[in-house]
Amino acid sequence: MEIWLGNMSRPSLELPAIEPSQNVQAAKKLETQLNALDIQLLKKAQELSEHRTEDDEDLDPEDAMIKDPAIVAMDVAAQIAYLRKLKFQYLEQNAKDKYVKSIVSDIDDAPIITVEQNNELSAINEEKKAKLKVAKQKLEETQKNIRLLAPLVEQDYHQVKQATDRAALLSQKIIDARTRLMLLRHTHPHPRLTIPLADQKLADQVVEMQTLSDQVQSVKQKAKADKARVKAGALVVENLRIEASEAQKAVKNAQLDEEDSRIVPLYEWFTASLSLQRSIHNLEDLHSETENELRLTYKISSSPPHHITITLIFQSDTKKLAAAEVSGLDELGIEVGDVVDAHIQVNDVHGLVAAILAHARAAAGT
């Protein structure tokens, strides 16, 4: 099958000069001439759309390219464009023939154009000009409105875009909030805490906080009283310590014999004073582990009674308080680490013991 569309020689169509009354006959004659060319595009459409067979593999690449439907479509488009140009040339030539005939022909054969026709054509032209002027004014007004409304439309567009973005963001937040709410509902099943129960719980917490605040005030007042009492007892202990040291010095200076009758009363007085001091501070045991370590055991009067052991460690050279260890407070559930550190920094032994005992008595409720 051979189709020579690309290299097909374009036939020359010689169109005779025709009159306006013969347009229909000229169109039919042109159709007859086009049918006589035997282009066969419609006849070969089915064959062009078919796939290649095994016999087509032996064809040359150029022949195969000619049978490609895409190339055939391009050639058809070129032929259509050529026919359109040919039609335009025909119309242009026809108009030229009419114009020449109207000029060179005799006055009798020329079409008669009267003044009325000219006036009618002039009126039609004026009407068209008026319509054109109105259309131009409308176009100018429309362009002006466009120039005025374009910034407003752009501003509205940006606002709508921002609103759209915000709506999308809020939608995503709503989805996230619903997801968290579903997770919370799954994590905390019924019965959940409602608003009335929350208000009631808040009121109970307020009452409890007020009660605890009153207890704290009473404990502070009791701690102040205990601190004053401990300070007074410390002064008594210090006086007794001074008296004991003076008594020891007097015993050494006098070098009394073992049978001296003053030793027994002095010993009894010292023992009674020591018992009195222990009874005031509830000191049950007092002994030195080493030269710079003193261990004090106090009894807290409660139900059941608690025992607190305070170990004081002094520096060997300066005799200042270096460290302190407290045992027995775990049962009461209190922590006095900050109090111990504060008193160690100022080297306040009496204050340290008094503060620890005050915390212990407050925790035991005595």
From TrEMBL:
<dbReference type="GO" id="GO:0000776">
    <property type="term" value="C:kinetochore"/>
</dbReference>
<feature type="coiled-coil region">
    <location>
        <begin position="118"/>
        <end position="145"/>
    </location>
</feature>
<dbReference type="InterPro" id="IPR048781">
    <property type="entry name" value="Sos7_CC"/>
</dbReference>
<dbReference type="Pfam" id="PF20882">
    <property type="entry name" value="Sos7"/>
</dbReference>
<dbReference type="GO" id="GO:0051315">
    <property type="term" value="P:attachment of mitotic spindle microtubules to kinetochore"/>
</dbReference>
<keyword id="KW-0175">Coiled coil</keyword>
<protein>
    <recommendedName>
        <fullName>Kinetochore protein Sos7 coiled-coil domain-containing protein</fullName>
    </recommendedName>
</protein>
<dbReference type="InterPro" id="IPR037475">
    <property type="entry name" value="Sos7"/>
</dbReference>
<feature type="domain" description="Kinetochore protein Sos7 coiled-coil">
    <location>
        <begin position="82"/>
        <end position="157"/>
    </location>
</feature>
<dbReference type="GO" id="GO:0034501">
    <property type="term" value="P:protein localization to kinetochore"/>
</dbReference>
